[in-house]
Amino acid sequence: MTVSKLFLKQADHLVGRIIASLLPVPPHHDVPSRPQSVLIIRPGGIGDAVHLVPVVRALRQCFPELTIDILAERRNAGIFALCPGIRSVRCYDIPSEFCDALRRRYDVVIDTEQWHRLSAVMARIVRAETKIGFASNNRRRLLTHPVSYNQDVYEADSFRRLLAPLGCDGEGEVVAPFLAVAGRDAEVADRLLAALGGRPFVAFFPGASIVERRWGGDRFAELASRLRKRIEVVVVGGAVDRQDAAVIERSDVLNFAGITNLAETAAVLARSSLLVSGDSGILHIAVGLGVPTVSLFGPGREQKWAPRGKDHIVINKHLSCSPCTTFGYTPKCPIDARCMAEITVDEVEDAVLTLLARGKCDAHQ
What we know:
The chain has helices at 3-22, 46-62, 95-103, 118-125, 155-161, 183-193, 217-227, 242-249, 262-271, 281-288, 302-305, 338-341, 345-357; strands at residues 37-41, 67-72, 88-91, 105-111, 127-134, 145-147, 201-205, 232-235, 254-255, 274-278, 293-297, 312-316. By secondary structure, it is α/β, with parallel strands linked by helices.
């Protein structure tokens, strides 16, 4: 967990509850029938931001003239560059940008945070008469239109429920692709992938936000050695993933970990035949790009976060102690994340070969 993320969680625990209890309840107003401006607040990681993009697109379809601003944080703001139709993206953990958002007036503010209260505090002080968000604790008293939240509902479906007060039809399956790669990022990906000479490849992401969700560089390396007999392998990730990526690189694969930014990583994924990943933001980006995936689940809630559809295979040992993550918090595992360790290389290889054999993966070349 990053220092900034840890600080925000501690601040919410120590201060958020108190402020949420002390601020006055906002006066109730009727929801505007044709809102002209909306601010969407999205704290948290990359995966949450990806699952929010279909809501942004649905809002645009319901209200074509709507101006949409995003108030995110630095670690997830890059996702919204993959979503056309947004006027601006600001980060609340950059003071000048947070203050700029507070100076503006909106018809509606939608707080998409599921549990922590500080984002509801932000929604309360933003100049907007309609304040929509999840009623998962005393944060509900800061909203004019609280919406119920269920830990066992697919996250994209939960986000779409936030549109109900606006009378916007957000029902139905989320259809991928719903993320779009910019031309300049596609060009960077093409240059990096030129060494493959146009040959198809499988992408690996060995990282995760917490150690309990990591499958391990050694297992990925063994999988790469086996797959290299059939198809190329490319490793993606950030600087924090370099150690595992270096282990995998010994299997004669391309290693882009720490080389590409988030948008460029998305462009590489868009060229891949499929992605192998644990429960991670990169996994959700691949899904949003319409890329088939093999995902490895353990501590995380499969029902809430796992990809859906026939182009995605989820491997989960379903131990009695998993999932153990609740509202984004995963306790330290006393048995060394056995739920991930028991996933074998054979299982993952079989899943990859199954997807490749279906023939649809070639569509991404």
